[in-house]
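Listing 4. Sequential folding, example run.
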Amino acid sequence: MRVDQYGEFEVKILVIGGTGHVGSEVVKELNKRDADVRVLVRKPDVESLPGVETVVGDLLDPVSIDAALQGVDKLYLLNAVTPDELTQGLIAYDLAKKRKLSQVVYHSVFRVEHFKDVPHFASKFAIESAIREFDVPFTIIRPNYFFQNDASFKDILTKMSVYPNPLGLVGISAVDIRDIAEATAITLMSDKHFGKTYNVNGAAILSGPKAASIWSEVLGKEIKYAGDNLDTFEEQMRKHAPSWAAFDIRMMFQGYLERGFVAEDGDAATLTELLGHEPRAYEEFAHETMREWQKPTNSRAAA
């Protein structure tokens, strides 16, 4: 830690995953709190991020990650879902441990210990286990499924009138990435959260039929729920993603249906206290997304 001109301690935070959907929101939240932020990028020509320092590195190159950690006090670790996610995550954590950082905040996933047959959950569970084993102060963020994943369904919803995700009749406690980002920034800006694990869940349960009914109201027409046929779901996923990724996501949804992904008792109250407000609602996200879809293309490009 450094001391600024006013004699106050300055904390420098390295954000890994800061150019993605969740990580970029975390960077925004840290900027709001005047944090000293460094973001790891894979390519030097990445568009500069306002208010932050960028450093080029690759999670499979320990030399570059060690250089990125130089002069850093805290690490936010969100590594992407890839076939080598475990190796990438452990390289970053091991180097943070070597440098004796004052805190690692790890982006994991809700109920991770109950989904050991889902490849990317299993990777996160192994990284969590390593983090808990050693003496680097840590905080673990365990979010549910992201609302914003559904923003990619524009054509399916508006043209085919179908909600495609197999959420089942029981449903899940999906959450807005902005709530995840706020919770993450709060835990990075205070030492009060060392050793804690936060389940980051939405306040309401989102089932397949419920999601379809919300989009029906938002779009002003009937949206049907596609149902729970996971073979068909995986087949459709393979048209837009590598086969390994389609299988991984299929296993995730299969786990939702078999084991549940609904918030635990007390999760909503804990998150509300942490954020200082109730978690955002899926209906709010759906209306915002519909308004974005309605904007002229040139207006979105210029924004």
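-- end of first protein; second protein begins --
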Amino acid sequence: MRIRTVILCVGSALLASFGASAFEAVTLADYSGEEIFMKYCVACHGESGRGDGPVAPGLATMVPDLTAISRRYGEFPTTLVRDTIDGRGARIDAHGTRTMPVWGYEFWIEEGGDVVAQREMKEVITKLVDYVRSIQDDSAAAKRD
């Protein structure tokens, strides 16, 4: 009887010390943009973002070099990149036909498909956009200066 009481007391103390946050589910929004990229984008875009992922050679459409976006547009087109990743809006001519997944929908479903998931999906896409911005190859611009 005493052992059971001691175990219950220790268990209760541990539970109280961890708090409820120890039992909360980790969501995709808890990860960094780089971690999300490595989980969802590397297969096609490659670890460097240059379009050289392991499945890229098997695709009918060439995978774009994400490190050259700023160079192609003169500056980083945040809205275009966000809309391209989301994929649920109007067709984006700059990306051509829709060959990549509609990540806005995929992330929304993965996060639970509700109002909270919509907010978290936007946060995930923002983190991805920020990460893609961070991998821009500015060496061509530096050579011009």
